[in-house]
Amino acid sequence: MHTQTLKLRTPYLIFLGEEARPTYAKTGKGIADWRPELCVGQLRLSDDALDLKLADMPVAAAAEAGVGSLIVGTALVGGSIPEHWLDTLCSAAAAGIDIVAGLHTRLDSIAVLRDAAAAGHSRLIDVRIPPKNLPVASGKKRSGKRLLTVGTDCALGKKYTALQLERDMRSAGYSVDFRASGQTGIMIAGTGIPIDCVVADFISGAAEMLSPDNDPEHWDVIEGQGSIYHPGYAAVSHGLLIGSQADAFVTCHAAGRTHIEGWEDYLLPSIGEVIERTIAIGSLTNPGIRCVGISVNTRSIAHENREDYLAQLSAKYGLPCVDPMIDGTSAIIHQLP
């Protein structure tokens, strides 16, 4: 059965509303930081809103510039869409611009927005809704090469590690693509599947669709989700690992974290435990799977201690160990099979 990953139309107009706090505009900021070539402007409803250093662009100018998607780059607490945003969003939809969001409120649940999209023949895209008709995994070997980021926990750098790997590999001359498996990653990449929203029987099949057959020397760098040791999200992580058929993986960790975030009764597994279990599970569909490096978020480490900390980890596990946002990932890339 044929299906496709979600595909967004480019270029993007990043909608920020009145949001001035970077924490609540991290989706928009992430897209502007990682895919500036896809962004032609920003739409702010207040001069005090966060400035992503993109051209301020009203809807009419965006339509004339050929904008494909207005990306809602903010997330209010509760994931709602304020009523006073609707005039702007409806104007964009009526002008033929797709509206893209990853909020809890479904775009197509808003009648005036549905009407505007129908008038403009535009799409309302909630990126946390997976494609229809995803298959059960086949387990068949696919051509090309794959690298998956895995973690000792959630929210510690798997997406940013994957993005930095793709950037550094491309600079080094590799044929490579970032494969997004979460909502912000999908907006950054312009395509992907929200793996954590897929019905359990189809998670591994979705992972196969996310990283299809490719040229023998092409690398897909797959954004990891959750952790195989996570008491809440391990099922997603297992399915993504099995379906990815990774040739290589990078283990991601947050320095100083001792317990599963939000599950304080659960101690964080060691990096070594994650490596061992990832190989045990991943070898089901790729017996050649191996760890090629360790990525550490070192924000909690004093600057003067950072290099010693990474060197100790590297010596302990016999693998390159970097903070990708400071050191880059070249040391890991050199380990790729």
Automatic annotation (TrEMBL):
Residues 136-332 form the D-glutamate N-acetyltransferase-like C-terminal domain. It comes from the Bacteria. Residues 59-130 form the D-glutamate N-acetyltransferase-like N-terminal domain. PANTHER family: DUF1611 DOMAIN-CONTAINING PROTEIN, GLL3100 PROTEIN. This is DUF1611 domain-containing protein.
